[in-house]
Every structure is written in structure tokens, then in C-alpha cells.
Design goal:
371 residues; alpha/beta; 6-stranded mixed beta sheet; two-stranded parallel ribbon; 43% helix
């Protein structure tokens, strides 16, 4: 009887290991094991819906009007966002919101719920802990990284140290953050008196570097960085100009940060030569959309699709808001966020774009880098 019992346990153990390995192996079309997402509302897929008192949410119509379910999902978009599209191209399911997973997780699970990735992104989040100065209801980058450390430990528990290390090293880490710092700097005269634009963006880049090193210490090796767009051209900023034109000072700060970000990443690569990265020059991509919209299928580059129009959107997208009947020809969905179509184009360019916009490699090339 004892030998039979041991045999049953052995068979059961074999199938547990087999199923775990089966799940870990890349399916047809799956280019990397997992996608881990860090950032703000541009890639938030619903984490803020799980923050008890947050009002920085997109859990009401007309958000989600073009999502497959036709329902709001916490994404600040009429449909999918950039994180969804990059996961699709990698052959992965969308990285689910971390707070949703831990709310629904069971300690009895035989495998980790984080195997194909997870999103820590949070609307309102910044590189600095104090960026969310008004709401204080988002997950700052430092906290997002802390959540990742917990995920890494979970992977180690389920896969062993060596298995987790290999799994994470082959995965991609998407970093989309920094816009909220520029918005903060734009509206704070006190901050502008305390720090020059160059000092401010340099501090942003060095603070981000600290968090990247924490990720590196816990297995991260392949990074995707999205540069800042021309923030001064979003409807929120255009509203502050009598001409409805872009705010050039804000745009200049975005460009300065992108330069600081690239310099920092290149320096980090020289320190940690086993990391690889892809940088998406969103600034110049959006500039192309604005300067020559018809070439990309756009007819509206100034106005938001959702919001009170006078002559461009001047209030946030709300449940009572009217919205345009055709969203694909708009660059912006609401006051600051792109439409699903704009997000789709971003990732098409990022995934297999020219060296003009993605460097030193595109995301598809990064996914194939051996670690």
C-alpha cells in the first residue's frame, strides 16, 4: 500500500510539473514568455478601479465604446490601449491589472497567476512619488516596482530560482511613464522657480534609473521605453492657447526629457551590458500625425472625440459627454489620451518600425534577443 501511495504521488507530481512546463513553453506565435507593464493612464488596464477612493478611473461609458465587450474596462480609451496591442503582437494575452489578480487569487493555485505577465500601470502615476499631487490616488512607479518584487517572489516559489530567472530574463518590461511630471511642471509656477527645466527632467531620468536597477536586480533584462509625445499638442494644453495651437514650452520640456531618458538608458547599458532595449520615439510619430494627418487616415488632430467642444474639448470625458460617431479619424479620444486607432499605429511602428522611430532595435527584434 505504501509503495502504491508513493507511485500515485509520483504520477501526480509528474503531471503537475508537466502542466507547469506546458504552460511555460511558448505557444505558436508567442514570442516571449511574459509582458510586465509599468506606467500611467496611457497603459492602465484597470488597476485604478481597485483603489478604494480613486476618482482617476475610466470605468464608465463612453470609455470602452469600441472595446470588444463594448463596456468600460478602466482603460482611458474608446477601446484598446498600447499595452493591449503590444501583447497581441507578442502572441500574449493582455497583461491583467495586478490589483485584480491579487483580489481574486487563491493560495491553493498550483501555478502562478503571473506567468504571462501583469500590469502595474496606474492612471495619474509618475516617476516621482509626489507627482499625483491633486488626487494622491494612483500607484507611483516606486510602488509599482515593489509590486513587481512580490510577483518575482511568487514566480520563484512556483518555478524555482533558476526557472524564474530564465522566464523573467526572456520577458519584456514595458515602461510608459513621465507625462504626469510634465503636466505638473507646466501648471506649477513654484516648481518652475525651484528647478530649471533641465534640472527637472534630469531628476526624472535619474529617478527612473533607480527603479530600473531594482527591476534589473530582480531579473529584468529586456526593456521597451516609450518616449513622451508632444504633450503641448493635446487638447488639454491647446485649451490654454487663444489660438488653439500647441503649447511650445510644454513640448520643449517633453523633448528635453526624451533626450535625458535616452542618455540615461545608454549610460545604463554601459553599466549593465547584459540589458537590451527598444526606444519608441512617440514625439516624432505624433508630430507626423499632426503635420500630415491625411497620410495616416486622420482628419482631426486638435479636438478630442469625447468632451464638450467649444471649439475644442474643454472638459473631461464624462458619462454625460457626447462623443464623435467615427473615432478612427481622431488622434485624441479625450483631453489627453489617444484613440484606439492612434494606439494601434503607435504599436505597429514600435513593433516593426524603421530606425527613424525605433532604436537601437524595434520591439520584434528585441523579443528575439537571447538572454
Amino acid at each position: 500500500m505504501k509503495m502504491a501511495s508513493n507511485g500515485v504521488r509520483a504520477v501526480r507530481g509528474f503531471w503537475v510539473v508537466f502542466l507547469v512546463l506546458l504552460r511555460l513553453s511558448c505557444s505558436a506565435g508567442q514570442m516571449v514568455p511574459a509582458l510586465f507593464v509599468f506606467g500611467d493612464s496611457l497603459v492602465d488596464v484597470g488597476n485604478n478601479d481597485y483603489l478604494p477612493i480613486s476618482i482617476a478611473r475610466a470605468n464608465f461609458p463612453p470609455y470602452g465604446v469600441d472595446f470588444p465587450t463594448k463596456k468600460p474596462t478602466g482603460r482611458f480609451s474608446n477601446g484598446k490601449n498600447a499595452a493591449d496591442f503590444i501583447a497581441e503582437k507578442l502572441g500574449l494575452p493582455t497583461s491583467p491589472p495586478y490589483l485584480a489578480l491579487i483580489s481574486n487569487s487563491s493560495e491553493s493555485n498550483s501555478s502562478s497567476p503571473f506567468l504571462t505577465g501583469v500590469s502595474f500601470a496606474s492612471a495619474g502615476a509618475g516617476i516621482f512619488d509626489g507627482t499625483d499631487e491633486i488626487l494622491h490616488q494612483s500607484i507611483p512607479l516606486t510602488k509599482q516596482v515593489e509590486y513587481y518584487l512580490a510577483v518575482h517572489q511568487n514566480l520563484v516559489q512556483h518555478m524555482g530560482s533558476s526557472g524564474a530567472q530564465k522566464h523573467v530574463a526572456k520577458s519584456l518590461f514595458l515602461i510608459v511613464i513621465g507625462s504626469n511630471e510634465i503636466f505638473t511642471y507646466s501648471r506649477s509656477s513654484d516648481l518652475r522657480k525651484q528647478q530649471t527645466p533641465q534640472q527637472y527632467v534630469d531628476l526624472m531620468a535619474s529617478s527612473l534609473k533607480d527603479q530600473l536597477k531594482r527591476l534589473y536586480s530582480n531579473g529584468a533584462r529586456k526593456f521597451v521605453f516609450a518616449g513622451l509625445p508632444p504633450i503641448g499638442c493635446c487638447p488639454l494644453q491647446r485649451n490654454q492657447n487663444k489660438t488653439d495651437g500647441c503649447k511650445e514650452d510644454t513640448n520643449s520640456w517633453s523633448r528635453m526629457y526624451n533626450e535625458a531618458l535616452l542618455a540615461m538608458v545608454k549610460g545604463l547599458k554601459s553599466e549593465l551590458n547584459d540589458i537590451s532595449y527598444s526606444y519608441l520615439d512617440i514625439y516624432n510619430v505624433v508630430q507626423k500625425f499632426i503635420q500630415n494627418p491625411s497620410a495616416y487616415g486622420f482628419t482631426e488632430v486638435k479636438d478630442a472625440c469625447c468632451g464638450l467642444v467649444n471649439p475644442i474639448a474643454i472638459i473631461p470625458c464624462l458619462p454625460i459627454s457626447q462623443y464623435c460617431s467615427y473615432r478612427r479619424d481622431h488622434v485624441f479620444w479625450d483631453l489627453v489620451h489617444p484613440t484606439e486607432e492612434t494606439n494601434r499605429m503607435f504599436i505597429d511602428i514600435a513593433f516593426h518600425g524603421s530606425p527613424q522611430y525605433t532604436y537601437p532595435v524595434d520591439v520584434q527584434q528585441l523579443a528575439t534577443v537571447e538572454t
